[in-house]
Predict the structure.
Amino acid sequence: MFTNFRKETSERSDTTNWAKQCLIRNTPYHYEGIEGCNENNNNVVTHLLERARVNYDRRNDMPIADVLSEIVKLETVPVLIRKINFAKAFGLNLSYVLYCDETQGVWLYEFNSIDSLILVQYFSSYKDFSNWIASIKGWKSSKPFREIDDLPLFDKILRKEGCAWPTNIDCFVSDENNKPIAVLEFQNANTISVKEHCNNEYFLCKQTYTNKWGYIAYHDDIRRWVSQEILRVQSGLRLFVITWEVGSEDFVLKEVEKITFPLLPYSNNWTLHGQYQADMHAFSINKTKENALKIAQKYNTYNLEYEAPQMKTVVNNPPLNGKNKTFPYIYYSYKWKIMSDGMELPRLFKNLIELDDVVV
């Protein structure tokens, strides 16, 4: 028998996010997150997962109807409906994980609808569940996980066993009918300020560092943006980005139209890989025609297209150009940078959503 259903999370939410709170208070939409989103090594979202910690008496199996009732009670009906509907946008059922620290048992359920729950699999240890996560990812991280003292025991053990709980989706937006309409990414610009922040500069290797061999190497945001583009392309939902900072009413509101990624060769050709990054870095800090041509005439890029159940990689060969959106870049449908007027955010966001609802 399960008792004491309660929420734990590995995420560290930012309670100072005034932009999100402003949207919640001043628009008619609903804003929820998803605790876990698994993207596999073929760039496909395979599972959207919620979770709850429970006590387990080791004796009696709990009727599935009672498990469903307790999860609904914990989540509330409207929130759970919105999460189920969001999963449907990806062609998935909503997965729901129950786990018990005392026995280290894990129960994986799936919601097909608000009144339909099935038990998919039982794992007798957190280690077995960590291995299952690795199996649906298709890979295990070779890097050690950063230790955080106040993580739940569940997350600490999953990390110790080699595969952590999948990353969350910070926010998705649902309409008044509980239907999903967008994915929303919040970016805190405290370290640089909203005024100076530019996603494309960091997408294109603006940041450098000296590696352990003493060579210049490049930071980029490419993997993070691949994850966001997978969400947009697979679900067919709109992708909005809001950049904000603490102690300021400055913000940027953008809608992503398409992301074109540099086709980096990695270990297939480390020399070319480094040169591609160096040319992107040069362009990110000095956007001249000459620096753009170095990229446009020498390199390949790619876009993601989803044909269920597969994500396709569509390669663009040189010459690349911005007009056809083949140059490596994050392309936006809309972009507003507003200084010192946070109350403009809900008005602009609502207008953008309603604009898409107008049939021309």
About this structure: The chain has a mean pLDDT of 94. Residues 76 and 325 are 43 Å apart (CA to CA). Residues 270-285 form the longest helix (16 residues).
